[in-house]
Amino acid sequence: MISMVMVAVGVYARLLKHAGEVAMAYLAADPTILLIAVGVLTFLITFCGCVGSLRENICLLQAFSVCLTVIFLLQLAAGVLGFIFSDKARGKVSEIIDGAIVHYRDDLDLQNLIDFGQKEFRCCGGVSYKDWSQNMYFNCTAANPSRERCSVPFSCCLRDAGEAVINTMCGQGMQAMSYLEASAFIYTNGCIDKLVNWIHSNLFLLGGIVLGLAVPQLVGILLAQILINQIRDQIKLQLYNQQHRADPWY
């Protein structure tokens, strides 16, 4: 039921969007596509497990067990590879953030996601606030006719606790300033370093989350295999009884 709700919400949000062709080409950054994909995958896996256990179908139970095993191994491999090749993982994250910056104005969901991340982590851009020059609206070249030239999004601005209304133009012209000058008005540190520092500071929390996801998967795999073995034993017992009922000396 949860997976069906996820798919429904993702499809509904996708239908309401009026993104341009450029944003459509960058579907990897679209949260609605991710929500739909996770929902569909979750529905298929849970369907196999639920119907397979109710109908005592070995094929569905095997599919459920195999899918959970593959997902668990992929998670384990991603964690190990991310730890071993941390530099390459950092570079990949940097590419994703740069791509999201380029398409910031093309997709409202992506824009809200970036603004949320920058406000929560108190950062701006990927490596620094000047990364926003990659966006065609914020580009700081003299040939850029945009009114937002050399600016940064409002989510980069230092927050005033007493400010009742958000000033969406607070990032105007910040890229033209030096780091020292801009630091009085906006967050100048990039989000990549902030994210890495947050991960290092919350290793126990992340470990608990990973363990919380892994344990149900392992329990599901174990229970599926136990049920498969019980079904096979019942089938063998039924065949044995049928063979001996046909025996005149039974």
UniProtKB/TrEMBL annotation:
Compartments reported by the entry: Cell junction, Adherens junction; Cell membrane; Cytoplasm; Membrane
Transmembrane regions listed in the UniProt entry: 33-54, 66-85, 203-228
Main location: other
Keywords: Cell junction, Cell membrane, Cytoplasm, Disulfide bond, Glycoprotein, Membrane, Transmembrane, Transmembrane helix
Record-level GO cellular component terms: adherens junction; cytoplasm; plasma membrane; pore complex
Topology class, membrane: Multi-pass membrane protein
GO biological process: pore complex assembly; protein localization to plasma membrane; protein maturation
GO MF annotation, one: enzyme binding
Membrane recorded as keyword: yes
S-S pairs: C123-C156, C124-C140
InterPro entries in UniProt: Tetraspanin/Peripherin, Tetraspanin_animals, Tetraspanin_EC2_sf
CDD domains: penumbra_like_LEL
Pfam family, one: Tetraspanin
Family per record: Belongs to the tetraspanin (TM4SF) family.
Name this polypeptide is given: Tetraspanin
Organism of derivation: Pandion haliaetus
Name of the gene: Tspan33
